[in-house]
Amino acid sequence: PHGTLVVGGDPSDPVALERERGVWACAALLTGHTAAETMVSAKPVGPDEVPAWDEVIEPMGGTVEAGSRHRPGDWPAQHDAPYRAVVLRVLPDDAGASLLLPWGPRVRAVRADASELASALFRASDPATAERAAAGGDTVLVAGERFGGGPHGEALARALAALGVRSVLAASFATDMERLLALHGVLPLRFLSPSDRRELEAGDEVELPPPIAESPGGRVALRHLTRGFTFDVRCALLAPLRGVARAGGLLRAVHDAIAEDAASRP
Fold first, then answer.
1. What is the pLDDT of residues 9-24, one digit of tens each?
2. pLDDT for 62 beyond 50
3. 91-111 pLDDT tens trace
4. Cα–Cα distance for residue pair 57/76, rounded to 1 Å
5. From the CB of residue 62, how many other CB atoms can be counted at a distance below 10 Å?
6. Is residue 99 within 8 Å of 158, Cβ to Cβ?
7. SS3 letters for the chain?
8. What is the spatial distance between Cα 206 and Cα 58, in angstroms, rounded to a whole number?
9. pLDDT higher at 145 or 52
10. Residue 68: CB partners within 8 Å, gap ≥ 6?
């Protein structure tokens, strides 16, 4: 029907289509077509003005489910100025979601509670990590190759943001993990030299500037305050996602954009 907005992924991206199949199922209910027909006829959002949020409804959904186990976390901090952080953990290669956030009945039950989900991080290997993160202010993680692989990557990114992790410094990331981190306001950075990774230990203090969109290759200079030297790391995100990460994640970026638009109107 006319006047209906369906928010989904890029219809030309097969990964996005698979991940967001529920969106197309909802669109099929709205349009009366099959999900396949809806995907084929979908097109990227044009320059049309976004409707007021009170005109956007959930198809056949009513109000959003809420309860004691549905609690969002605080807004992630914006990456708009240099900040100091403590290295919370140094992780090995292949530190995937199943290792950092072991998925079982207890974690599944609190998957919609950001704080509870964050407290489940590292529970098997170091139960005191969450307490150290809460007491230490801004933190970063250091990891090896293929950080964040396996299922439940989105839950891992959300938990890291709720834990107060500002950035993940890794030799490389698993497929799609950098995007998920950026959407939740956690900045993914890659080491340019493997030797630099070995210079960082848990408890070290570092200073990171925000990634500049125009900087060549997304390079930023990281200052190792504990040992007194500087080395470059790289933000491999494309410019739009880099902007989302700088803004503190997608939800905060959208919230702030709406507030700014409302304030500018007469």
1. 554 555 554 555 566 6
2. no
3. 999 998 888 888 888 888 878
4. 27
5. 7
6. no
7. CCCCCCCCCCCCCHHHHHHCHHHHHHHHHHHCCCHHHHHHHCCCCCCCCCCCHHHCCCCCCCCCCCCCCCECCCCCCCCCCCEEEEEEEECCCCCCHHHHCCCCHHHHHCCCEHHHHHHCCCCCCCCCHHHHHHHHCCEEEEECCCECCCCCHHHHHHHHHHHCEEEEEECCECCCHHHHHHHCCCEEEEECCHHHHCCCCCCCEEEECCCCCCCHHHEEEEEECCCCEEEEEECCCCHHHHHHHHCCCHHHHHHHHHHHHHHHCC
8. 44
9. 145
10. none
What pTM value is reported for the model? 0.72
**Under 8 Å between Cβ of 188 and 79:** no
Residues 6+ away with beta carbon under 8 Å from 118 = 73, 130, 133, 159, 160, 162, 163
Residue 61 has which token pair? 């959904």
Distance (Å, whole) CA 266 – CA 257: 16
pLDDT for the residue numbered 76: 85
The overall average pLDDT reported for the chain is: 78
CA 93 – CA 172 distance, rounded (Å) = 9
Return the ∠ at Cα 225 (arms to 222 and 230), rounded to 5°: 35
Q: How far apart are CA 225 and CA 188, in angstroms?
A: 20
Residue 72: what residue type? P
